[in-house]
Design goal:
It is a single chain. The protein is mainly alpha-helical. It folds into 3 domains: about 65-170 and about 205-335, no CATH class; about 355-480, no CATH class; about 485-590, NAD(P)-binding Rossmann-like Domain (Rossmann fold), CATH 3.40.50. The protein is built from 22 helices and 8 strands. The strands form 2 sheets. The protein has a 6-stranded mixed beta sheet, sandwiched between helices. Helix 19 (about 500-510) links the parallel strand 3 (about 490-495) and strand 4. Helix 15 crosses helix 18. The relative contact order is 0.06.
Length: about 600
């Protein structure tokens, strides 16, 4: 059994890892290289046609190990055509609409071989939906191919998880998924940043086509469980689908063409926020692995649990998209043109209006998710028809009451980028009041007949976690990226109190200071070893000499407003003796 799985993988991996440098050498000798452009991310000439190595290693291995039938031959034939279309585009650069027509034609041909969404009994509906799915995934991986190793690595993770899901689910696409994983990992050896070769449209389109096809073939497509049918493929392909949706919306808002090249993908924005290219790629790998794990988990849990998990993850992603959407990736000229076209005031109002609509819409998801999850927890994941009827009957009333209470408490007027303890207290009051009001309404209307009182307690706790968590998300994203973005002089902050915490926040929010805080100093022994916003209190005045050498400190910032002038003089003199600059916090704050 192990050899059955191991040999096809090793063969495809070996062919790919051997063939890729050969293709690279030929591409370089013939001058087929991708040159740096303003709308592209790479900064040096890089060999093209890596997709040839991926395609040949997959094709040879598949023909060796697969039981060929008209069905399988049709899939391989369509894959070869889409590869040829991508290769033609790499050489001659055809127009996007021409390429799209070719993709639709190939997807239509695929349907004639019997590959389609089988849960829908009406061919007239399943046919166009299948075409849309295949074309969407092809272009998702094409758009995701915007940074060294990103599309290839994510595709390798997706195909590997698809192999695992197929094994657990008793499916029959484990072999092509395993072979594709080997081909991609072999190519990734040369495509991981800094890339020595690009896969081009030939590779990205072929990868997208095969993964789209395999998700359609898998046996869960014949299940009557609609949640699994939708959730597993979406979870598997979450990263490329998220990037494609995000770029489409962002470019639409900026009046740019969707298929126009640009540095406005989620990966590019993460680099602008401070991550290195390699770390950005690894973070997106991790996210893809996380969703892959959720895909496997969804096979073993109740469909309703999967549905609730899908909704919560969707909320997290939407807030992440809103956070990334604020990152400046367009030039000042493009921004000015956009403001001139839409009006600066009008545009700002539209964005703020959409933000409020987004919060209202996501709160609807959270209210429903908390209420249904409370029932799932109370009844151990199994909802009887009678319980489901209670949920359907009461949920509209619960939603109405909670929205009214939330509006009364001003939950749609906050600037959650600066969320504080007082904001969380307000949210606590709003959720508690909303839960009490909805419980009283159900008691008054239905006398609590059939309802479980424990459900409403669980619902209150869950809703507070969900609503407060959603409001804190933007602050969390900001804190994470602020920490990795900090660069410049390595400093110690003398004073682990309110002033020290304030100056740390100022440094994180002000890129022009060019400081990288390493830790705090404080003469209070009780503070040693404690943390403020993730930075440790490393020692006291007596430890300065040791810490300057050990931590390679460039400067010390005094953040102790009540410190005496004599003490300041002693510290400044001590630092001068160590050739270290020492400044008061007033000297670095903006005037």
């Amino acid at each position: 059994m192990v050899l059955t799985h191991l040999v096809p993988f090793l063969v495809s991996f070996a062919i790919s890892i051997v063939l890729t440098p050969v293709v690279r050498g030929i591409a370089l000798s013939k001058g087929y290289v991708a040159k740096p452009r303003k709308d592209r991310w790479h900064k040096k000439d890089t060999a093209l046609f890596g997709g040839i190595a991926i395609f040949i290693s997959f094709l040879v291995s598949y023909l060796l190990f697969a039981k060929l039938s008209i069905y399988n031959i049709g899939i391989v034939l369509c894959g070869a055509i889409i590869f040829g279309l991508g290769l033609f585009d790499d050489v001659f650069h055809i127009k996007p609409h021409t390429k799209l027509i070719g993709q639709i034609v190939v997807a239509s041909l695929l349907v004639t071989f019997g590959v389609q969404i089988r849960i829908i009994p009406y061919h007239i509906i399943s046919f166009p939906l299948t075409i849309i799915w295949v074309v969407a995934i092809i272009n998702a991986f094409n758009l995701l191919d915007n940074m060294d190793g990103l599309s290839c690595g994510v595709a390798a993770i997706v195909s590997a998880v698809l192999f695992i899901c197929s094994i657990f689910n008793g499916g029959y696409v484990w072999l092509p998924a395993l072979i594709l994983t080997g081909s991609l990992l072999g190519f990734l050896r040369y495509n991981f940043p800094p890339a020595k070769i690009f896969m081009g449209d030939a590779g990205s389109m072929f990868i997208g086509f095969m993964l789209a096809t395999m998700t359609l073939q898998e046996s869960w497509k014949e299940s009557t469980n609609l949640v699994m049918i939708v959730a597993i493929p979406v979870f598997l392909l979450a990263v490329p689908l998220f990037d494609t949706t995000f770029v489409t919306l962002a470019r639409g808002l900026a009046s740019r063409r969707v298929f126009q090249g640009g540095k406005d993908h989620i990966s590019h924005r993460m680099v602008v926020l401070g991550l290195s290219e390699k770390k950005t790629v690894l973070v997106l790998y991790f996210i893809s692995l996380f969703f892959g794990g959720v895909s496997v988990l969804s096979i073993f849990v109740q469909p309703m649990v999967t549905a609730m998990l899908v909704l919560l993850v969707a909320v997290v992603l939407v807030y992440f998209a809103a956070f990334l959407g604020k990152v400046k990736v367009y030039t000042d000229t493009e921004v000015k043109k956009l403001k001139k076209r839409n009006g600066s005031t009008i545009l700002g109002g539209i964005l703020m209006h959409k933000r409020r609509l987004l919060e209202v819409g996501l709160d609807f998801i959270l209210i429903c998710t908390a209420y249904i999850t409370a029932y799932l927890l109370r009844f151990e994941g199994v909802l009887s028809p009678a319980t489901q009827a209670l949920i359907v009957k009461s949920l509209p009333l619960v939603v109405i009451i909670k929205y009214l209470v939330f509006f009364k408490f001003g939950l749609y007027r906050g600037m959650w980028r600066y969320v504080s303890i007082s904001d969380l207290i307000t949210i606590f009051k709003a959720v508690l009041s909303a839960s009490l009001a909805s419980s009283l309404a159900i008691l008054f209307i239905w006398r609590f007949e059939g309802f479980s009182r424990a459900v409403f307690i669980i619902d209150w706790l869950l809703l507070f976690v969900f609503i407060s968590g959603a409001r804190v998300l933007e602050r969390i994203y900001k804190e994470l990226f602020d920490q990795v973005r900090l660069s410049g002089k390595r400093i110690l902050i003398y004073g682990a109190g309110d002033a020290g915490e304030f100056i740390l926040r100022e440094i994180k929010n002000n890129d022009f200071l060019h400081y990288k805080p390493v830790g705090f100093l404080d003469d209070d022994e009780e503070k040693r070893g404690r943390y403020i916003h993730g930075l440790p209190v490393l020692g006291a005045r007596d430890d300065i000499a040791h810490l300057i050498k050990y931590k390679q400190i460039d400067e010390i910032i005094l953040a102790m407003p009540k410190i005496s002038d004599d003490t300041i003089g002693d510290i400044v003199g001590f630092c001068k003796g160590l050739n270290i600059n020492c400044r008061r916090m007033q000297d670095i704050l903006p005037k």
